[in-house]
Amino acid sequence: MRWPRTLSLYVAREIVAYTLLGLLAISMVMVTRSLVRVLDDLLGAGFRFEDLATVLGLLTSILALYALPVSFLFGVLLAMGRMAADVEIIAMRACGVGIRGLLLPVGLLGLVLSAATLQLSLEAEPAARRGMAAAVRTMVLRGASVEPGRFNTIGERTVWVDERRDRRLRGIVIADRSDPERPFVVFAESGEMELDEERAEFLLRLERGDVHIEGGGSEERYQRLTFERFEYRFDVDALVGNGGSRRPREMELDELRETVKRIEAGAATGSLREVPASYPVHLQQRWAMPMAPALFALVGVPLGMQRKRGARSWGVILCAVLAFGYYALQSFGELLAIESGFPPAIVWMPNVIYGALGVVLLTRAHRAS
Fold it and tell me: pTM score > 0.85 for this model?
């Protein structure tokens, strides 16, 4: 039988329409939820209204890795369910178009989305995470996190100011616990704050005050130093997470591969931001997760084409169950690999399970047709 081109285009248009609708809804929910979750940290870092577009763009790029596959599953289930409810599937079968004819356009769309998701996983999502870290760093460098009349925690330091007018500060108290063996407290009548974006440093030029130091020797357990002028500076990169190596989710692919090689060779891992086992796991995930759209096509077609009442409601519920199951298995495999010493390849477990489930469902649907 000839390839039913017109029918395939019709099925593809239906799926694309529902996918775009689902992408809009799912993206809004996911981005809003993530924005609310990080809003406190962003406000503490000096978040301004003009930063909203930047943060939303970065969050959208990060969450697209999950939103695209779920939206596609939503589109497949609702499109197939609508056609089954309207007896279009039965009419197609009567014309000699079986499960293969339906699977062809859906499978091609799934492969295209898998390729796009692969690009997101390897490049766009890590770049967006690096961009988010850089955006927070820029906010901190503005100094807007030092708010008058409240205790401002910045890394291992707590800062209090009575008044602030632009860069001028009055009534300053700084508790520095960056060195646990020699914590100290600084009191100053006034001062001026300067920000060095190039060197990523806070610089406080303090005036008329004293420094109270605990520890510092076996004989002298406490010191008090009075000053007229005192420069106090600290590195911003270290406290926003840009110092040293990056987290595995933020690394470029070559950088992550090189780190995994060093870990496997037994090189020093003291500078790593996370436990060594997480790096090979995240490397495997970058290749495993983009297979989701193709797998959702395999599972979604036979499940969606079953004729049921309330096809749209059934499709939404089924989409939630299948998507949650896939990403829950992904998280479970990650946990087993990092915490229990399982091989990193265990993160491919949901792909194997959903692939086998898709083959079984397609076989049953083919026999039924």
Answer: no
